[in-house]
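call fold(seq) -> C-alpha cells
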Amino acid sequence: MFQPDTVIEQEEPLDNGVSSIEEAKDAPADWQANILAFACHYCAFAAADLAGVMRLSYSPNVKVIRLPCTGKLDLSYVLRAFEKGIDGVFVAG
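ret:
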C-alpha cells in the first residue's frame, strides 16, 4: 500500500558512474515524427476536413482518425499506437 511519507530513492549509478537511463540522442536532420491524431467527429475532424476543402496543407506524417467522441477514447488505443511505433499522439475534441 502507498504511504504518502514514503521516499522514492534515486537509482544508483552503475560501476562506471553512468546511470542506467539512456542519454538523449540527436535526431537525424531528415527525421520527421509520425503523429496519430484522434479527432472528434463534430469538432476537430470537421476542422481538419475544412482545411482539406480549403486546400490547406499539413504534414503528411500526421494521420487523423475520426471518433464519434474523443471523451470515450480508450487509453489502450493510445498505448497501442506507441507500441506500434507512433512518435506522438494528439487527441482533439
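The chain has a mean pLDDT of 81.
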